[in-house]
Predict the 3D structure of the following.
Amino acid sequence: MTFFTEESHEADEPEFEELRARPADLAAPPTEWVLPVTLPWQRVLGEGPHARVVLERLQCWPDGVGLDLLVFLRRSPRDRRGHASIFHHHPDRRPPAGGLRFGVLYADGRRVTNLDSARSDGQPALVSRGGHGGQFHFRHEVYLTPLPPEGAVTLFVAWPDQDIPETAVELDATAIRAAAAQAQEIWPDLPPAQPGSSSRTTRTVSATATASRLPTASRKSTP
């Protein structure tokens, strides 16, 4: 006897696309391959009379860290288009002049902001992962890559339109790197990179960016 009742049905034989190993130059979190380690580090990054910018948590991946940013408003203009324009990463588009500014400073002096139009060689990158919310609260997910070096990593926030002055908050990058080293590889047996394979489906894993193998779950027999 099983928990779920089986129903007989006929279906066409489906066609499948196989997942390949993750690429080494992936500029986004490897959500299809890795289970990240979450650090519930809640910090107020900036505050004004009518607005708060809060870090809710970090998701630590082998090659970067995801930052979940929350914005809380006591009052909001009826025109909310500015909410969607916080993190535009196109050469010809920038946040509004008085909009929310967000930046990161590594311990070795490298830096990146949401005002940067393009990534410079050797410099970190902020990749917008989109957001959602309502008139008085919204969330935005940002991916920072590569992982910051050991030491302090400093987050900067300023929002002139909301009277939020430039504010700096330090985080422990050494702890972030330690958490990232514990990220779990979901499919450790995927085939290695093949010459000429698509960059989206091919992986070359370096020694410093290898995720741990996900432990096998124990199975319980169904009575």
